[in-house]
Write a structure and sequence with these properties.
Shape of chain A: globular
Largest interface: A-B, 35 and 41 residues
Radius of gyration of chain A: 15 Å
Structural class of chain A: alpha+beta
Strand order of the largest sheet of chain A: 2-3-1-4
Number of helices of chain B: 47
Oligomer: heterodimer
Radius of gyration of chain B: 40 Å
Helix content of chain A: 25-40%
Largest sheet of chain A: 4 strands, antiparallel
Strand content of chain B: 5-15%
Largest sheet of chain B: 5 strands, parallel
Structural class of chain B: mainly alpha
Distance between the termini of chain B: 124 Å
Number of strands of chain B: 15
């Protein structure tokens, strides 16, 4: 499994209803392509969105979007970089 | 008479709810729900769990327990007297403990307990007196269904008690026909269709020698039975009539006038015509505030929101009208709407009415489609509804457009009854239009505002922002009351009117009307006065009133004519009379009651059985159905579905009510009125509860399915999945495959939205199986869709083939070409190595995809063609297909499509011997790696490796084979992985390492599902290498 990022840009701010529709369309296709949606980030102006998926490859995510007719700007495989985990403070 | 002494504490449940301490009324908290709680605890007289009380009154509250605690804290001090506390709370159970408190209903029940014959007449009379008030009058909570159902049952029980007491009295007063007649008539009011009640009146009139009246009574009973119930009079009724003429009755029997000649109740002289709008007297400060607000808005300096607050009848509506007049005088426009108390759910109802005040031609063309969801008469709404804000924004733009150069007032009356959606729009508009020429004015009853959370939030928010100009209306003083009633008659006694009305203008006007109609004693209540006024109408007008009252909100003459059984000319005359007498008022083409209290009083006059009949007929007329066939599809005007649901529910037609709730929910969702949608779903489900199983399952599945909409997440019941699963199982047991399919799909979507993809996939598969019994086109599409998906990811191709073949057979009976069918077949043929057929199927799929304007599927199916040509060893044709494919790929934007075409073209050129194509191939492969398309990368590398190995480049071919194997494995493409292993085995053989070749072949044979699961091409490649290996000496 790799981490896949989908970048999307919207001409009009993404509304809750439009987001719901994207989810609905993408649902079955994401399932069939063995794609797992991890999380998404929507900009405050609701015009840009970054979605994080896990899948066999970026193509599986792309295909899920294509077959569902859900538009995206870019799909790419990513390495996750995160700050080192801090040890929980002892008493 | 056992008249009770003023007790320490008295709770009155009959009539308006009242608590008296030593005879003095105590002041209630304004919340209706708190009063309802008190009534419930007192009337039931037993302990209740907190859960039950929360369910009863705060079902949809955020924190029901906190609401209950708050209400109890208000009730406790109210009921304290003589040092006794009366709200007991023990182990989570709450009870009212009388501790000597007197409860009127309990007293009546106890008094009437002995057999009627044993109850003394004075006690019966006292009981009847008490029973004249309805059970907790005016305390309806339409949104608390449990409470409302309980309340309706209690009222019915009180009605039965009342009729029982009256019947007993009539019998006991047999020796005093004059006295008995009053009670007999009273009983008739409550039981207008009970023949026995009519007979008692006829007999008493006969005994009193009032034969003509008795005959009229007989005739009116016959009429009522025929018209309302469609039945013939009984023998008893006819016997009573005959007895009137027999000497046995012991009265002089002057030959009666024929019934036809006896004019059917001559109406009393009409009251002086009521002025449409009563004069505005007094209210100096209020008028100044209105003018100051209009001036402020005209200068765009600030836009306060005006709120007129006060008790019913105090004159709020009149001040809104005054504001309207002044705005119009200043050249401005007024848009007016109001909330309605009835249990109606009309999302944006008040706004729809208000916006209808804008002439269509004055709505800018670019806004028409945007506003159309609210005003369907404007034409088609936008193809895709984005969200609530877009609709709100359009309304704001429309208001701003009309307020560019002159004032515009939006006047919303009865704010306390506005629906959540209307309040949200009002709030939005008031915020966005601050500092413009738009003025917002509302009127509300403060006590009832407490029960409308959305309205309360709106008022508080405006208050915090210092934008609310709240005007509390006080009663009129004696001088102004006299001024108000003077036009109704110079001889009226204004001081008496002021004393009796306490300065309430509506009350004053009603008293004045009653006095000027010649009534010496006037009722002590506003309702009583209105009741009297309704009783003085002509019979024709009186026939129309129940229908108008039951309609619940303003209506057109057209709607009225559809429900009232009167010829148009008669109806028109009746409506004119009602207008003249100030019962109804007309605004443009709509009619409404002059005051909501008039409507309520008129509605209360309708007996229970008649109400059911009236609502039933209204529901049918609005739905345009005469009789609902079981399981019939009813196409409602979506804008009327809410009304149909309301009337069908009250009319007792559960199926029509449930279907209408479904339609109304869809409309509410479409208008983003989610609170209303949730309420409608819950009602629809309840109505469907007792329907025959097939209809119930269908309706409940549809209704529960509406909760699955992502936007309804907050409103979903916690056990939605269980409900859907239970209904699906019931559908299965009842042999309803289409419903099973629907149920599984709902669960599938529900799982998906909650992130459970495994569960979702499972339900999707089962839905596909269940879908087989649905309509042919749905079946074909569902089956082919699954086959295509399997083909695209090269998974379980045996199943894919079965499904695709089945879809192909079934599709033969359907005219429309579905892309899914040839597409799925293309994969099946390709997998089986039938390349010609595969090419033909994909061609058909390309044509169908073009027809459907589905570019990606067009690209996808077209991209299979150069692959097939390459595999058939026809590189020149493959290049042709690539030329066709290139522009389609270019349209797909950034992704794997364009590099894949370039890679296929480079492979074809290499196959044609163009070694220079290697650079293009490597560039395309780099792009495929970048975009991380492992399946494509693996396919191209296998083909490229085969070509290189044929040309003797073993190491380069091995490197490609190794990359192909890794990519194919990662993407789960077993056939491509086997092809890569076959390539690697060949490389090993060429390099003289048969052991390594054998290992690759072994691994290929061990792929999931074994060799049989692989594509014909992969199997062929593995077998070919195996055959070569067999010939190689070890």
């Amino acid at each position: 499994m790799v981490d896949v990022i989908v970048e999307t840009r919207f001409e009009e701010p993404l509304t809750a209803a439009a987001h719901g529709k994207r989810q609905r369309l993408l649902g079955p296709c994401v399932m069939r392509n063995d794609v797992r949606w991890v999380q998404s980030y929507l900009s405050n102006d609701r015009r840009r969105m970054i979605c994080h998926f896990q899948a066999a490859d970026a193509e599986a995510v792309r295909m899920a979007h294509r077959t569902a007719g859900v538009v995206f700007e870019r799909v790419w495989t990513a390495a996750i970089l995160a700050p080192p985990q801090e040890e929980p403070a002892g008493d | 008479m056992r008249a009770p002494q003023p007790p320490a504490l008295e709770v009155r449940l009959l009539g308006a709810l009242e608590v008296r301490r030593r005879g003095a009324p105590v002041v209630f908290p304004p919340s209706k729900k708190t009063r309802a709680l008190l009534a419930y605890l007192v009337a039931t007289g037993r302990p209740h769990s907190r859960e039950r009380l929360c369910d009863l009154l705060w079902e949809n509250a955020n924190d029901p327990r906190a609401e209950l605690r708050w209400s109890l804290s208000k009730l406790r001090p109210l009921l304290e007297a003589d040092g006794a506390t009366r709200i007991a709370s023990e182990r989570g159970r709450i009870a009212f403990e009388p501790r000597g408190a007197m409860v009127d209903l309990a007293w009546v029940r106890e008094s009437l307990l002995p057999a009627a014959g044993a109850v003394p007449v004075d006690v019966l009379e006292a009981a009847v007196e008490r029973l004249r008030g309805d059970f907790i009058e005016g305390l309806e909570l339409p949104r608390c269904r449990r409470f409302d159902a309980w309340c309706a049952a209690e009222r019915e029980a009180v009605r039965v008690l009342r009729i029982g007491a009256l019947t007993a009295l009539v019998e006991r007063l047999d020796a005093e026909p004059e006295r008995a007649l009053g009670y007999a008539r009273e009983r008739l009011v409550h039981e207008p269709f009970a023949e026995a009640a009519h007979i008692a009146v006829i007999r008493l009139l006969g005994r009193l020698g009032r034969v003509r009246e008795a005959l009229e009574q007989h005739q009116s009973c016959r009429e009522a039975l025929r018209r309302e119930l469609g039945i013939q009079p009984s023998r008893e009724l006819e016997a009573a009539r005959r007895a009137l003429q027999s000497p046995v009755s012991g009265v002089a029997t002057a030959p009666p006038r024929s019934v036809e000649a006896a004019s059917p109740r001559v109406p009393k002289p009409p009251a002086p015509p009521a002025r449409r709008v009563p004069p505005l007297v007094g209210r100096r400060a209020e008028r100044d505030a209105i003018q100051a607000t209009i001036d402020a808005v005209a200068s765009s300096s600030s836009s306060p929101v005006l709120l007129f607050a006060g008790a019913p009848g105090i004159g709020k509506t009149r001040l809104l009208e005054e504001l309207g007049t002044r705005v119009r005088d200043a050249g401005g426009t007024v848009l007016a709407g109001r909330g309605f108390e009835a249990e109606l759910i009309r999302p944006y109802g008040a706004w729809v009415d208000a916006l209808r005040g804008v002439a269509h031609e004055r709505i800018p063309p670019e806004l028409r489609a945007e506003i159309a969801p609210l005003l369907p008469e404007l034409g088609a709404p936008p193809a895709e509804q984005a969200d609530r804000n877009r609709l709100f924004e359009a309304v704001v733009m429309l208001l701003a457009h009309h307020a560019e150069d002159r004032p515009l007032a939006v006047a919303l009356d009865d704010l306390q009854w506005l629906d959540e959606a209307s309040i949200a729009l009002l709030h939005f508009a008031a915020r966005r239009l601050d500092g413009t020429h738009v003025l917002f004015a509302c009127a509300a009853r403060p006590a009832e505002l407490e029960d409308n959370a959305a309205a309360l939030r709106f008022v508080r928010a405006l208050d915090r922002e210092s934008r609310l100009r709240r005007i509390e209306l006080a009663p009129l003083d004696a001088r102004h009351t006299a001024e108000l009633v003077r036009p109704l008659g110079a001889e009226l006694d204004p001081e008496r009117i002021f004393r009796e009305s306490a300065g309430n203008p509506l009350f004053s006007l009603e008293i004045a009307r009653a006095l000027s109609a010649g009534e010496g004693a006037v009722s002590a209540t506003l309702e009583g006065l209105i009741d009297g006024r309704l009783a003085r109408l002509s019979e024709r007008a009186r026939d129309v009133v129940p229908w108008a009252a039951a309609l619940g909100h303003d209506f057109t003459l057209d709607v009225l004519s559809r429900v009232v059984d009167l010829p148009p000319s008669e109806l028109l005359r009746a409506v004119e009379e009602l207008e003249r007498r100030g019962i109804l008022r007309a605004e443009a083409d709509r009619l409404d009651f002059a005051h909501d209290l008039v409507r309520r009083t008129a509605y209360r006059r309708i007996s229970e059985p008649r109400r059911r009949m009236v609502h039933d007929r209204i529901a049918r007329a609005l739905a345009g159905v005469d009789r609902l066939e079981r399981g019939a599809t009813v196409e409602f005007d979506p804008a009327l579905a809410g009304d149909v649901a309301h009337h069908a529910a009250l009319g007792g037609d559960d199926e029509l009510a449930a279907r209408a709730c479904l339609g109304a929910t869809r409309r509410a969702l479409w208008l983003f009125a989610y609170d209303d949608a949730a309420e409608l779903i819950a009602r629809g489900i309840r109505h469907a509860e007792d329907l025959p199983p097939a209809v119930r399952i269908e309706l409940q599945l549809e209704l529960f399915g509406l909760y699955v909409e992502p936007a309804m997440r907050e409103h979903r019941p916690a056990d939605l999945e269980d409900e859907l699963t239970r209904l699906t199982a019931e559908a299965q047991a009842a042999g309803l495959p289409a419903e099973v399919h629907r149920g599984l799909l709902h669960v599938c979507h529900l799982f998906f939205h909650s992130g459970d993809f495994t569960g979702a996939l499972d339900r999707s598969r089962r839905a596909e199986q269940a879908g087989r019994a649905a309509d042919p086109a749905t079946v074909v599409r569902a089956i082919a869709h699954n086959a295509r998906c399997l083909g695209m990811i090269e998974s379980n191709m045996a199943q894919a083939e079965k499904l695709a073949r089945e879809a192909e057979v079934l599709a033969a009976g359907i005219e429309e070409e579905m892309q899914e069918v040839p597409h799925a077949l293309g994969h099946v043929h390709y997998h089986a190595g039938r390349l010609d057929e595969a090419a033909r199927s994909f061609r058909r799929a390309v044509a169908a995809a073009r027809q459907e304007r589905d570019h990606w599927y067009e690209w996808y199916c077209l991209s299979r063609l150069p692959m097939i040509e390459l595999e058939r060893g026809r590189p020149a044709e493959a290049r042709e297909r690539c030329r066709e494919l290139r522009p389609v790929a270019a349209r797909m934007g950034e992704g794997s499509e364009a590099p894949f075409v370039e890679a296929l073209d480079a492979l074809a050129r290499l196959a044609l011997g163009e070694t220079a194509a290697r650079t293009a191939l490597d560039a395309a492969l780099t792009r495929l790696r970048e975009v991380d398309s492992k399946a494509m990368l693996a396919y191209v590398q296998v083909a490229a490796g085969d070509l290189e190995l044929d040309a003797g480049a073993i190491e380069s071919a091995r490197a490609r084979g190794t990359e192909a194997l890794g990519a194919a494995d990662a993407a789960g493409r077993a056939s491509t992985a086997a092809l890569a292993r076959a390539l690697l085995a060949r490389c090993s053989l060429e390099a003289g390492d048969p052991a390594a070749a054998r290992r690759h072949l072994e691994a290929a044979r061990e792929s999931p599902g074994g060799l049989d699961a692989l594509s014909a091409r992969a199997r062929g490649a593995v077998e070919a290498v195996a055959a070569r290996l067999a010939k190689t000496p070890t």
